[in-house]
Amino acid sequence: MRIVSWNVNGLRAIINKDFIESVKKMNPDILCVQETKAANNEVSQTLLPFTNYFIHNNSADRKGYSGTALLSKIKPININDSISMVDGDSEGRLICAEYPNFYLVNVYAPNSGQELERLGYKKVWNSNFLEYLKDLDKVKPVIACGDFNVAHHPIDLKNDAANYNKTAGYTQIEIDGMNAITNAGFVDSFRYFHPKEVAYTYWTYRFNSRAKNVGWRIDYFLISESLINKVKSATINQDFYGSDHCPISLEIDI
Fold this sequence. Notes:
Deoxyribonuclease I, Chain A; alpha+beta; 12 strands; 25% strand; 26% helix; 6-stranded mixed beta sheet; single chain; globular
């Protein structure tokens, strides 16, 4: 099974930037999309070309903000995006799809804000999200993927010292939140296979950052330990464009 996760930074924008061809080329069994920035009916209309996928989307109440979507060739047993303990503010940040052998959680974690004004909110959100993952894992193994809006280690961003405790996504509070997830038994699949590789998934549109490869790795597949021996590869697909993020993929025998 090939699972792809991609923060598209606006679904209606990326659809005009070879998104359909990119998805066809990657040919995922499941595609998890974050930051759709559209209402549910707009997302559904935009995704009409994907006729061979079951589609579910979870849009934010706030117009043009956040939002997640799931495209799956295999219809899930059950699907849930009304997780009040995690997304009580209806920001469309989570979809949980249940499959026979695992739960798939598509997530778009909050950004702490330019002035770190949402850092306290992010801390509570991280704690609630971890408890949710642990509850799921008691029933079935979990694959959690998406934009977690945090660089976990210095290797995961270009200018670590300049950004530490100053920039959203690289504060100690956010790092501690990711530490808590991995310490609870959810494996960062890319680092499992590529412990020393410098590779990024996000580049700001400013300063020609992508061409200079001044980026951050903030998109992850976090896998229950019981599944990691079934993972064949975890890849950052930097050759696909259209967003300020690139897609990431997981090949798993499940």
